[in-house]
Design goal:
Elements: H1 3-49, E1 50-64, H2 83-87, E2 92-109, E3 112-121, E4 124-135, E5 142-150, H3 171-176, E6 181-189, E7 200-207, E8 221-231, E9 235-250, E10 255-258, E11 263-265, E12 272-289, E13 292-307, E14 326-327, E15 331-346, E16 352-362, E17 386-396, E18 401-412, E19 428-436
Parallel strand pairs: 9-14, 10-15
Antiparallel strand pairs: 1-2, 1-19, 2-3, 3-4, 4-5, 5-6, 6-7, 7-8, 8-9, 9-12, 10-11, 12-13, 13-15, 15-16, 16-17, 17-18, 18-19
Length: about 425
């Protein structure tokens, strides 16, 4: 047998093993590819469930300084007036800063939503939202939300700061609802969009009552909100009503209430809880025409607010109250009223809009300006009424970038409080650039 014949026989003998190895290698390769495809599909599915969004607001503000060298409450970036500016008796100050640096994580699966939102600025890191929202899987009418989220009162609180046409919320909301959010649990009832009853939405829940802060007592505040919304091809309109019923814990036994232009001690009161009650109504109207989209929104609030001698604000981590609805000093009961009217007019079909807003807040409706600050009345700056006329311009460069220029003309009533015998200088200019992603 020659060498050539031996080679042919050896090839024939080894060929089945080579073919078998090649088949095994191809099968392994296919398995690896299938695993990779499965991993990519799983990653894509998760990415569809997880949404990351946010926005950054870079801001410059210039504010007038009053005769008492006080910084306006609407100066939101930078620090207040410093010692050098006070020494030089500065008539105005300006500051640069990041008003909001928000990042929001939303994961949605099987009708459940988990939301975390943070605020990152040069002042530090803070939590804004941390809640779970569950929609009933049967008819889709009822949802339950729990955690830290916007209080369901009125329209302006839940209207995102990234969409709002003015730099800040109205003074009445900033005072009564600091931080906008609260720790609580809420039920919302609304029919699906396919139902004729979808025009109605009812929200109601129990809250700690002290903003983004630790809950440390057994009393809870109730908030309810009912809205009706409808639309036509050219018009959208809505009306609503809100109710807040809560309390503030009082450590001291002295509780004061207005009687004939002065605060007097309420007879029979002792250490306990003071009632906190608000009623609000709202309306909004949007109409599209040849001159552009016209949007009008308005809200009115009134009620009873327990505060301190120096503030009519609500309990919060930034206010003069500490803990969950616990007052530091004596309690001063005030009847208040306030609201706003906001007009936004788009200029035809361009990217430009003009904004005009008027808001007011009277923390103590039972006493007039010339009686505030009178010796022996125990009244002061916390009882002084304010109003603000704001005029602004908006330019929406694209879906991500928006530029705002806004001028606030703030007025206070003339009182007997030192430094506030007449309207003080506290107007404010805001220029903001926002990037949303």
């Amino acid at each position: 047998m020659d060498l050539k014949t031996l080679k042919v026989l050896a090839f024939c003998a080894l060929s089945p093993f080579a073919i078998s190895a090649q088949i095994a290698e191809n099968v392994d390769t296919l398995n690896v590819l299938e695993q990779r495809v499965t991993s990519l599909e799983d990653a894509t599915l998760v990415s569809k469930k997880l949404k990351i969004s946010g926005y950054i607001q870079a801001q410059w503000q210039s504010a007038q300084v009053d005769s008492l060298q006080s910084t306006p409450m609407d100066l939101k970036v930078g620090a207040g007036i410093n010692e050098f500016e006070k020494r030089d008796k500065a008539s105005d100050i300006n500051r640069l800063g990041v008003r909001r640096g928000r990042i929001k994580l939303l994961y949605e699966d099987f009708g459940c939503q988990g939301v975390l939102q943070f605020d990152l600025t040069e002042k530090g890191l803070g939590i804004k939202d941390a809640y779970l929202n569950i929609l009933d899987p049967w008819v889709g009418f009822v949802s339950v939300k729990g955690g830290v989220f916007d209080r369901p009162f009125g329209y302006e609180i839940s209207y995102s700061s990234s969409r709002r046409e003015t730099p800040e919320r109205s003074r009445v909301f900033q005072t009564l609802f600091p931080d906008e959010r609260d720790l609580g649990a809420m039920v919302a009832i609304q029919a699906p969009k396919t139902s004729p009853w979808t025009v109605l939405r009812l929200e109601g829940g129990l809250f700690a009552g002290n903003g983004i802060n630790t809950d440390n007592d057994s009393k809870k505040d109730f908030i309810g909100h009912l809205t009706y919304t409808n639309s036509t091809p050219q018009m959208k309109y809505a009306i609503g009503a809100s109710y807040y019923n809560g309390s503030v814990a009082q450590l001291n036994k002295n509780i004061y209430k207005i009687d004939t232009d002065k605060f007097v001690t309420k007879a029979g009161d002792s250490t306990g809880y003071s009632k906190r009650e608000y009623i609000g109504v709202e309306g909004q109207f949007n109409y599209s025409s040849v001159i552009g989209l016209t949007s009008i929104r308005a809200e009115y609030l009134f009620g009873v607010q327990p505060g301190s001698s120096s503030s009519s604000g609500s309990p919060s981590s930034k206010g003069q109250f500490v803990g969950a609805g616990t007052a530091v000093g004596d309690t001063y009961i005030r009847s208040f009223q306030g609201g706003y009217v906001n007009l936004v007019q788009d200029i035809a079909d361009t990217k430009h809009s003009i904004v005009v807003k008027y808001d007011w807040y009277d923390p103590n409706t039972k006493i007039t300006g010339d009686k505030v600050g009178v010796s022996g009345s125990k009244t002061g700056k916390a009882d002084m009424a304010y109003s603000t006329l704001g005029i602004g311009y908006l330019y929406r460069m694209n879906n991500n970038v928006r530029i705002m220029a806004y001028y606030d003309m703030v007025s206070n009533e003339a009182t007997k409080v030192k430094g506030y015998f007449s309207d003080v200088n506290d107007n404010l200019v805001t220029v903001r650039v926002q990037y949303k992603f």
